[in-house]
Amino acid sequence: MYNLNIIKIEKTDSTNNYARELIKSGNISEITVIAADEQLSGKGHSENTWESEKGKNLTFSAILSPHFLEIQNQFILTKVISLAITDFVAEYFDKSLVKIKWPNDIYVNDKKICGILIENVVKSDLFEYSIVGIGININQTEFISDAPNPTSLKIINGIDYNLKELFYKLLKHIENRYAQLINPILNTLDKEYLNALYKFRELIDYKFQQKEIKAQIIGVSKFGKLIVKTEDEFLIECDFKEIEFL
Ligand code: BTN
Questions:
Q1: Candidate of 39, 47, 50 to mutate for ligand 1, largest count of ligand atoms within 8 Å of Cβ
Q2: According to the model, what pLDDT value does residue 30 have?
Q3: Is residue 14 lining ligand 1, measured as CB closer than 6 Å?
Q4: For position 70, what pLDDT does the model report?
Q5: Which three-class secondary structure state does DSSP give residue 179?
Q6: What ligand 1 atom has the least distance to the C-alpha of 41?
Q7: Handedness of CA 137, 144, 54, 77 (dihedral sign)
Q8: Which of 36, 37, 183, 199 sits at a 20 to 30 Å CA gap from 19?
Q9: How far is CA 69 from each of CA 66, 102, 129, 179, rounded to the nearest angstrom?
C-alpha cells in the first residue's frame, strides 16, 4: 500500500535520534521504520530515559511524512498513532482494559505498557517529517528504573512472545491508521480516542497547578489540550505536565 522501508539495527543511542540523522541524509521512503534491539539512551518525554532490556521489547521509530497535515492539526497524528497501538495491544487483552492515558501513553490494567515520543520536523507551518518513536514492553519482566507503573505483555499474560511476529502485526495497525490520517473522518477518530481515554468522565483527584482538585476529563481540544470539569463545574484546559493524576 505504501512505500515501506524497514531498517533493523542491533544498537543505537535512540532510534528517534537515528531517524533524525537519516532525514538529514535525505532519501526517505513514505514510511521508514528504524527498529533496534538495543537503545543505549532511549528517550522518553520531558528528558526522561526509556528503559528497555536488550532484545526483549519493541523499540522503533517510524518516520512519517504527513505533508498534508497542518501543524496546528498535529494532535490528529497523536490520536491516530495512539489508536494504532491500542488496536495492537487489544489483540492480547480484553479491549476494555486497554486505555490511552492522555496524551499518548498506552495503559493496560492501570499500568503503562507503551510510551510514544513524537518529534516533528517542520517547515513553514507544514510537517516535513514526523518521527514517531514507540516503545512497547513485550517480554521484559523486571524494570529497574524509576519509571512509574511499567508492565509488559509477558508480565500480564505470562507468555514469551515472538518479537518479529508482533513487530509486523503492529506495523500493519500503524499502516491502517495512517491511512485514516490521509483521509480523516474526524468525528470518528475523536470518538474512538475518547472511548479509549483513561479515566474519561470519572470524577477523581488530580493535581493541577500545585493544588489538589476533584475533576473529570470531559474532552480533548483540537490542539490536544486536556479539558477537565471540576466538581464545582469549572472548565479547565490543561497542557501536558500541568495536570497529574493522584
Ligand atoms: C515516554 O516517555 O512515554 C515516551 C517513550 C518513547 C520510547 C521510544 S523507544 C523508541 C523511540 N526511541 C527513543 O529514544 N524513544 C522512543
A1: 50
A2: 75
A3: yes
A4: 86
A5: helix
A6: 14
A7: positive
A8: 183
A9: 6, 21, 10, 13
Q: Is 115 in the pocket of ligand 1 (CB under 6 A)?
A: yes
pLDDT at 2 over 70: no
Query: What is the rounded average pLDDT of the residues 182-198?
Result: 90
Locate the ligand 1 atom nearest the alpha carbon of residue 135 and give its number.
Answer: 9
* pLDDT of residue 27 exceeding 80: no
Q: What are the grid coordinates assigned to 102, written together?
A: 492522555
Atom of ligand 1 nearest to the CA of 45: 2
d(C-alpha 191, C-alpha 186), whole Å: 8
Q: Residue for cell digits 486536556?
A: 226
Give the full edge-to-edge strand order of the sheet including 204-208. Answer: 235-238, 226-230, 211-220, 204-208, 243-245
Q: Is the beta carbon of 206 within 6 A of some atom in ligand 1? A: no
Q: Is 200 left (phi over 0), alpha (psi -120 to 50) or beta?
A: beta
pLDDT of 1: 59
Grid cell 470531559 is found at: 218
Which atom of ligand 1 approaches the CA of 104 most closely? 3
How many angstroms separate the alpha carbon of residue 60 from the centre of ligand 1?
8
CA 97 – CA 100 distance, rounded (Å): 10
| 204: its cell numbers | 477523581
Q: Taking the mean position of all CA atoms in its chain, how far away is CA 34?
A: 16
**Is 184:86 a contact under the CB 8 Å cutoff?**
no
Ligand 1 in contact with 42 (CB < 6 A)? Answer: yes
Nearest Cα residue to atom 11 of ligand 1: 133
Question: Which residue, among 85, 77, 101, has the nearest Cα to 184 in the 3D structure?
Answer: 77
